[in-house]
Write a structure and sequence with these properties.
The complex is a heterodimer of chains A (175) and B (258). Chain A is of the alpha+beta class and 175 residues long. Chain B has 258 residues and is an alpha+beta fold. Chain B has one domain: outer membrane lipoprotein receptor (LolB), chain A (Clam), CATH 2.50.20. The chains are: A alpha+beta (175), B alpha+beta (258).
């Protein structure tokens, strides 16, 4: 594989993920809460997501696997459709972001800046405010931007306590 | 505000890259390789008890290709387990079916916890998502990449591993339960993402039981196949890329296969 090929591989999927995350990063409103119907997720749970990213008329399916704790910790693994991990990010109860795992496709800086913010926009308790994020129905979120949209559905919720070490930033693989 | 502007510019730049550079067919090869490997490949042969590495795997590969050459079609149900140890002790699972009809038709359908159909042949690929009570055809980005993945899946199903040796080193190990084919990407960059892929077959090579893909570290994906039916005459519309036949109708035909 040439350097150009590697760069393209990184760039394409990075771009897709970047698009997915950029909306939350572009208009943060930390002090306000998102106005939308109350969600029904339990505080302690494993959650599986299916998302379709649309950009310039083309659509890209993505998967997300999330562990969330009653104390406010969030741990998200983002994969492409066939399971390849693109990012593993932790937001601890204090709101600090830790990149637990990165990939050639999604580098630590991008995960910290965009993936984590997107995560907080939809799944934090309470979520960060963003007028571009709507919830048309329970467990269904839409992020609409001028240049892209993200249609995210929570497809499985498994309530149950999550071990504290899931949210321990010291248990980290090398980015 | 400066941070926000940077974010917006970065996103716009990425969009341009996403849609301008992907026209380079040669470069898509890498992406398709990564996805192909991620679908099928795994490590861990050495850790399994009683496994004996076959010094010369070629006779087994030839035998596999010979046996698979007579298979005109196959229907498989699968459970896909995604093991992310840092996130959960138990795997995240999904269920689905895989259908292959020679010479080149493939249908990969996830039925739970979400519904999605991926259809491919040598000429084109299509994906459908079940939303709001109906199937929606996606206007897929990077269709060439998925098409290549599907083509390689067809080669695998036909036992044509020789066709893959340009990109992978293939080795074989056996024990009383499995014959395990291990494919290791030759390219170091691809290998750094996904070290290897295992295909676990019955000892007589009559059926594929599992495919395991190990990533670096402790994460891996396992696809467990069951209820394999060969020689199915799939009903019209099974591989229709405009309006695929509902799975229930296909299963009815499969259940009546001789």
């Amino acid at each position: 594989m040439s350097n150009d090929e590697a760069r393209l591989a990184n760039f394409v999927l990075l771009g897709a993920l970047l698009l997915m995350m950029a909306g939350c990063a572009s208009s943060p409103q930390h002090a306000e809460h998102l106005a939308r119907p109350d969600w029904t997720f339990p505080g302690d749970a494993r959650i599986t997501e299916r998302a379709i990213l649309t950009a310039r008329g083309k659509e890209y399916p993505l998967n997300g696997f999330l562990a969330c704790s009653q104390t406010g910790g969030l741990r998200l693994v983002v994969t492409e459709s066939f399971g390849q991990v693109l990012a593993d990010v932790l937001v601890n109860p204090e709101g600090h972001v830790f990149v637990m795992r990165s990939s050639r496709i999604l580098r630590p800086g991008w995960i910290r800046r965009y993936v984590a913010r997107d995560l907080q926009c939809i799944f934090a308790h309470p979520p960060l405010a963003d007028p571009s994020v709507t919830m048309p129905e329970t467990n269904h979120f839409v992020i609409q931007r001028p240049w892209y949209s993200l249609d995210l559905r929570v497809v499985q919720v498994e309530p149950g306590p999550q071990p504290g070490n899931r949210f321990d930033p010291n248990r980290r693989e090398a980015p | 505000m400066r941070h926000n502007a940077r974010a917006t510019n970065g996103a716009a730049s990425a969009v341009r890259g996403l849609f301008l550079e992907t026209h380079c067919g040669k470069r898509l090869k890498l992406l398709s390789q990564v996805l192909f490997v991620s679908m099928f490949f795994f490590r861990a042969v050495a850790a399994e008890s009683g496994l004996t590495t076959v010094t010369n795997p070629q006779p087994i590969l030839d035998d596999l290709q010979r046996k698979m050459s007579s298979v005109t079609s196959v229907f498989l149900e699968f459970t896909q387990e995604r093991h992310y140890q840092a996130l959960s002790d138990a795997p995240f699972t999904s269920e689905g079916v895989m259908l292959i009809d020679r010479p080149d038709q493939i249908r990969w359908e996830t039925t739970s916890p979400f519904q999605s159909i991926l259809l491919g042949n040598q000429k084109s690929v299509a994906q459908f998502e079940f939303e709001n009570g109906k199937w929606k055809k996606l206007d897929l980005g990077l269709p060439e990449m998925l098409q290549r993945v599907m083509q390689q899946m067809a080669l695998m199903n036909q036992g044509k591993l020789d066709a893959l040796t340009a990109d992978y080193n293939v080795s074989v190990a056996t024990n009383s339960s499995f014959t395990i084919l291990t494919l290791i990407p030759k390219d170091a960059n691809v290998r750094s993402l996904l070290p290897s892929l295992e295909i676990r077959m019955l000892p007589d090579l009559s059926a594929t039981k599992e495919v395991v893909m190990h990533e670096n570290g402790t994460d891996f994906t396992r696809i467990i196949f069951r209820n394999e039916v060969r020689g199915v005459k799939f009903p019209a519309g099974t591989f229709d890329q405009s309006k695929p036949l509902d799975l229930a109708a296909i299963k009815a035909a499969v259940n009546h296969a001789p």
